[in-house]
Amino acid sequence: MRKLVFAFVVIGFTNGLAQSKKGSDTYLDGINDLDEVVVTGQINPQSVDKSVFEVKVINRQTIDNLAANNLADILNQQLNINIVPNASTGKSGVQLFGLDAQYFKILVDNIPLVSDEGLGNNADLTQINLDDIERIEIVEGAMGVQYGANAVSGIINIITKKDSEYKWEITPFIQEESIGDEYNLSDQGRHIQSLRVAHNINDNWYAQVSAFRNDFKGRFGEKQGQDYIENDGLRGYEWLPKVQTNYKALLRYNHKNTTLFYKFEYFDETVSRYSESVFRNFNPSTQTSNPTANDDIFDTQRLVHHINLNTLIFDKTRLDISTSFQKQTRNVEQFTYRLLSGKKENIRKNEYESRNVFFSRGNLSNFISTESFDLQAGYEINLIDGYTSPMSNPLQSEAVSRSLHSYDAFVTSRFELSEKFSIRPGARLLLSNNFDPLFAVSLSSKYVFNDGLQARAVVGSSPRTPSYDELFTYFVDVNHDVRGNENLSPEQGYSAFFHLKKAYWNKDYSLKVKPKLSFWYLNVEDRIELSIVNPSPLAYQYINIDKFQSIGTSLTTSLEYQNLTANIGLSLTGISKVLDSRENFNDDFLYGLQANTSLSYRVPKLDITSSLFFKYNGPQYQFVQQQTEAGETALERGKQDGFGLMDFSLRKQFLNKRLDVTLGSRNLLDVDRVNTTATEGGAHSGAPSNILLAYGRSYFIKLLYQFKF
Amino acid sequence: MKHLTLTLQFLCIAVLLSCSSDDDSPAQTETVVAFENSELIFSTSVDERTINLVFSNPAQQAGNIQLSWSSNNSNYNEDFVTTPGSESGTLELPFENGDDGVSFELQKLQNPIEGQEKTINFSITSTSLSNFIAGGNTDLEVAFSEAAASSGNFAPEVGGPNQPNQVFLDLSSQSSVTSSREAWDLKFYNGDDFRVKLNGSLFMAAAELEFEDITTVTAEDVAELQSQVAVGTFNPANMAYVDAPNGELYGTAISEISVSDSENKVYLLNLGNEIGTETPQPGSEAVAGEARGWKKIRILRDGQNYILQHANLDETDFQEITINKTSQNSFSHVKLASNEIVQVDENITWDLKFTVFTNEITGAGSYGFTDFIVNNRLQGAKAFMMETSSFSYNEFNIDNVDTENFTEDQRGIGSQWRVGGGPNSSPTLKEDVFFILQDGDENIYKIRFTALTNDNGIRGYPAFEYEKLN
Lengths: 709, 470
What we know:
- Chain A has 709 residues and is an all-beta fold.
- In chain A, β34 and β35 (608-617) form a beta hairpin.
- The chains are: A mainly beta (709), B mainly beta (470).
- At the A-B interface, β12, β13, β17, β19 and β20 of A face α1, β1, β29 and β31 of B.
């Protein structure tokens, strides 16, 4: 029973966490007792140290210390990752090594999560709540063999809680948070309520349900809200208000070597977008004004069913099958709002965009297995039915429905050539109804030197499938000719990573230091870009034309000394873009620096943990086309200023560790807008001189109570 | 038990916090009724006019409005009558639930003797509903005279997001003429020069060919040229194929028509686009529909007349029409499909024209503009823009007019009254500007735009108010 694959054990820190009391001996040996077990990219769950891949783990402790609600809150502090919020849609995307959310895949319990615009990629991080999360695993680099298309820059695998040590565990919490300096109980701030109930029915059955509500009231900032009647650009919100509710359920069955679980999730989000343009409708005859505005309310619903079977067949061979139905639909209600009477008129409700997904992945592992050799073979099916309305893309004239079906087969293996040296070659064949057959390959190796120094080299590839915008844009009128291209090929991403790490400790293990040095190279070929395909009459089309490269290095160190844990990281990433889609470009590498650090100090006697997180995003550079005074276009090196994000919290447990109170502040350095010259203006608008990245310093309090028996 | 109590308390707080108060905005209860204009001019050529009263919002129930009138030098049944009748000096106008105004007819029975001032004053005296109140223009002065109106409002019927109409407006007589953009193709100048202009509201374009015989030109001859002879190609050289956007007569795409036939070449004519038919998203436009195809044309002179030859590209035959110069208006308009001269602006001396327009973006060539406003350059109308940062609209008076600011360019207003707009956003009314217009008779007006869209944000419903300054 204890050796179950999905015995989700977080050992985390040596003392204090109740979870470590039981089951922790499964993976304990030597110094590895400090290591988390990871599943991402593994044939069998492994400790981080044994994994051939370099897996970063964010554990529950860190999530709790940050009082993080959604994935954006936590990834903000990660090295190499940038969170790019879009204040006008309310979404937040991820950027890694200069590649946006289309290149990054988000998985929950090893399977990709549906979003408005894709499966796994293009996710809105604010829609992923962390209330039932055990830990988060991050792997940088192309993971096409393990996770298919769109895993170019990396993947995140969110592992949910699937067990409890108690017969009953009832955990309600509330969290009150200011949004910048805005907070009250009615129309400002963020108000979160959550309840989770876990129950071990008997030795075989386990059930868990949770409900979560996040009422984000939006940020006014300079804006004046919904009922502001002037047409001076101040109506509405700087950050859109949204209300999210999330219900989850899990039923798990264990018996001998078999685990079966069914997971259900329902997510609902309402985002209100109040137009900043006001039609004042001044009537000079009556000298009255009856102002109106065109507002939109978006309602997103996500439904996830996931069933997983993990069992042993023929004694040793492990069968693991996940099947999932997922659906995410974004509807929009558009209406005319009469500002004086508060009436909604001319109401239209439409589907905005949606994705309907059937996913299945199965694999057999250890079916040819010796001490020094593992083989895993499997299949993956993705059936994605998508819909986008013209409202979702102003450059698309008609609604588009499209099915993307892909059928993949993959093989990975692990050769333990010696105690010290192991390699993992793998390959995947991707067949689809839309594209020519594609291959993804990977080759990883690990070598442990005599002094304990570990070296890993990881090479992988993954394609990126074209987006709907790239395929179906059609904006042709007397002045414009901008077209998508249904004949696009997927982009090809390749990556190579090299990691060196070693652990040092003193005699009584009270001090442990683990430095890690990494180098990488990432390359995207056949990059899709909107290009001029005819200069006169001017016509644009998306074509496979450009090339993207990223190189970088990072040094991270973790340190533990008695009750102090500290992490420090430094990374330098260079990005080069060959833009054959443009008349002129500069493919020099432009470098950006990032640094992060986290400090956590625990006072066991008082049950207090204080944590400080800091991430510095150095200036980012990009070549932009600018008009010179002579009216010619020239390339200049634009710069987005650097900024620091600092979070602080104090967490104390009361009442025999049943009541957990966390107080803290996010964004202590009060960052909101960051100056930039690194964006280009559009045909109808100038380049913005700053971008909105955060909403200033905010404060939170979280009260969590654990009712266990 | 202690735990349970605590948990319950906790949950109660959670529930409390999750209930947000829904405070309702105050309901709008009063409806204001007013005359559409405070002044109405009956020139000698006008016999009857409709007098409109408007409501600030649609009526919530049926009712009626009482008016009274008093006159100066004019008598009921002698000088004027109203429909419905009002011999007693009062007038009752009923309205239904949902109506947004009422109206009555005023008919002039005889013109005043020159020098005599005849006026009638109408006033709103009462309404049958307590929440209907008179406000704004509560009085209307009707003058039987030739003087220019001192103020007024217009809501030109551009016709919504397809902007199907061109609307010609004369501020001094408070009159307007609405005409379909597709009513005509070419217009022929009636002044001294022999010039022909294209219908830029349909994005037409013309290129001179080497040919002098219209029958010998084939589609093959022009095939290579066709992609370039169009609006919006983003090739600056395409300005040669459209009329000068500044309205200068000498800037026409078609060269001056010569007395010598051999100098009058055949032209390739891109007929532009039909009026759009799609219903775009609120705030967007869809002015351009299907392409209207191509013609070849040749224009000759016959004394003081024009002769227009036109045919489809591959035809060896052609149609011909003679256009005689008239003194009635600046241009005579011709529709090719019916091969006839058509009335477009009904010969009014217009000051402003609301139209879709072929403009220029410097460096990118010709570019189609919507919501465009042209001042009548050939009749001497000029305009310029004022920013409210220097003068408010209400304060601005004749002493503040710097006549040096008037521009010859017919784009004195142009698209400057709106701001923003592009594929991802809709333009909005520019709230911080107003315009000064001088018409051909040197009346000077200030003009303030009050709408670009209707209440629902649908494009193509402009409105403005104006006041005479001198």
